[in-house]
Amino acid sequence: MRLLRDESGQATIFMALFMGILFLGFAALAIDVGMLYRERRIVQTAADAGALAAAAGESSSANITTAAIAAAAENGLTVVTSNPAAGQATLTAVDGISGTGNTAYVQVTVTQLTPTSFMGAFSSKFGQMAVSATAEASYLTGSSACLVGLSPTGSAVPYASGVETDGSATMTWGTTVMADIATEGSSHINAPNCGVSACGPSTEVSGNGQTAAGLYAWGSGSITASSNTAPSYGTDNSGSTITSGPTIKPCTGDPLASSMPAPPVPGSGYADPTWMTNGTAGGHAETISPGTYRNFNTANVSTLTMNPGLYIITNTFSTNSGTTITGNGVTIYLANGVIANSGNTTSVAGGATPYGVGNGTTMNISAPTSGTYANIAIWDGNSSNSTPDTFTFGGGAASTFTGEIYAPNTNLVLGNGSGTSALSSEIVANTIMVLGGSSLQDNYKPSSGTPAAGGVNLAM
After folding, report:
1. Are 392 and 427 within one domain?
2. Are residues 133 and 163 in the same domain?
3. Are 196 and 221 in contact (CB under 8 A)?
4. In this structure, are 22 and 100 located in the same domain?
5. 300 shares its domain with 184
6. Beta partners for 145?
7. Residue 186 lies in a domain
8. Domain final residue pick, 139, 166, 182
9. Is there a single domain that holds both residue 128 and residue 189?
10. I want to staple 138 with a disulfide (CB 3.0 to 4.6 A). Which of 32, 161, 310, 455 is the partner?
């Protein structure tokens, strides 16, 4: 009984139990911290991979969230859309983090729920971690915009009589609207995979009865693109629309200037066949080969086949009503000073004598896919920005183009009911006007999706 009543040594037992529990707690804490550290490294690696993948896909119109999730999954992460269970994560991708020029910036944030052995008993927040990564991608050529107007002042939109500028509800009447890219008379521009960008005018023009609208839709016309940017913009009050946006933003200049080859040099002789010189084709089908042509004229030709290669036009470019022109692997270079039959023009203000594709002509041209002039379908070599040429696509027929239409010192006009249902081109011009019920459908996807060497990096 004396032994049972002996209380000596109890403190030692309690101390041993307490130390055991404390040791187990520290061990659990160490395990939790180590596990969280390991999981954070996994999540950070996945976020980095997701950001790089999103940035790489940015200018090729890829869905940045889809690209980021796929890359994160390849790096061991299980991504769900909401309410993650233990070991699962959510992911967000944010576009447009102060990017300029041909650089795309994307930020990816990953939040994962990681179960813990000890720390979770105090708070579930210990098992949640959120890490972010930002990546940038620079590209060799191209632009996310597929229609670019370069004029700092714009040109007058025919027939326009009123404008609401920069989102204002106030209509300005009796003004000349100066625009880089415009639609008029129920005409439409639709570029679902790329953007529309105007370089000017930079501010509303004061005096001389002019108003600036770098992008302008008039007469129930519309401009629809993945993005619309300009220093100024406007619509009238007849239901005209510009979507998405638009966003007031300065342009970054000519996106193709640095990637264009040296201008072609005309040959010493001319390849004009007799029927082209004298207009004696008699309504027959004709075929021509690459070379230098003085006067490109398809009068009295039913169908014209252009064999693959480079065509240099030195004097006039004129097509006949009803002619169908087809060329695969073709580049047409309009040498500086080319003019055309004045009957093939649409009335627009300013510039040199217009030239272009006549009313009722169907022109189907695809650019070469390799070689010096790869991806260039039409190149206007006018070198004077102060006196821009005008290239007109006449009405009454549909033309298709695949490849770049490069005319930095030329006003491009699509007019009088003409349609281009299968256009797939990056168009760079002084100004671009779509008039008289015409429709410009551009299914181009930016060619800048291939990153330059070392061009995709995590932004620090």
Report:
1. yes
2. no
3. no
4. yes
5. yes
6. 195
7. yes
8. 139
9. no
10. 455
Please check whether residue 139 is in contact with residue 452, taking contact to mean a CB–CB distance below 8 angstroms: yes
- CB neighbours of residue 37 within 10 Å: 9
Domain with 133 in it: 10-139
Distance, CA of 67 to CA of 55 (rounded, Å): 9
- Give the whole-angstrom CA distance, residue 29 versus residue 22: 10
Q: Which tens digit of pLDDT belongs to each residue from 364-412?
A: 999 998 899 999 999 998 887 777 878 887 766 677 888 899 999 988 8
Amino acid identity for residue 111 in this structure? T
Mean pLDDT of 319-347: 72
Alpha-carbon gap, residue 152 to 143, rounded angstroms = 19
Same domain, 134 and 229: no
Give every CB contact of residue 84 below 8 A, 6+ residues apart in sequence.
Answer: 90, 111, 112, 113
What is the DSSP code string of 279-290?
T--TTEEEEE-S
Which residues are bridge partners to 405 per DSSP?
378, 427
CA angle 288, 309, 372 (to 5 degrees): 165
Identify the helix (H) or strand (E) that includes residue 73.
Answer: helix 64-74
Close Cβ partners of 121 (under 8 Å, ≥ 6 residues apart): none
3-state secondary structure of 274: helix
| The one-letter amino acid at 47 | A
Domain final position from 104, 121, 139: 139
Query: What sections of 240-308 are H helices per DSSP?
Result: 274-278
Shortest CA distance to 317 belongs to which of 379, 391, 385?
A: 391
In a domain, 458, yes or no: no
pLDDT per position as a tens digit, 344-356: 334 343 333 346 7
In a domain, 226, yes or no: yes
pLDDT of residue 423: 72
Which amino acid belongs to residue 6? D
In terms of domains, do 243 and 307 share one? yes
Q: Are residues 55 and 159 in the same domain?
A: no
- C-alpha 428, offset from chain centre: 12
pLDDT in tens, 94-128: 765 444 444 456 677 777 766 555 544 444 454 56
Q: In this structure, is residue 4 part of a structural domain? A: no
For CA atoms 217, 430, 312, 145, give the dihedral sign.
Answer: negative
Token pair of 348 as six digits: 């627009």
Confidence label for 149 from pLDDT (cuts 50, 70 and 90)? very high
Between the CA atoms of 74, 75, 76 and 81, what dihedral angle is there, to the nearest 10 degrees? Answer: -70
Can you give the three-state secondary structure of 353-378, one letter per residue? CCEEECCCCEEEEECCCCCCCCCEEE
Q: Which helix (H) or strand (E) holds 379?
A: strand 376-380
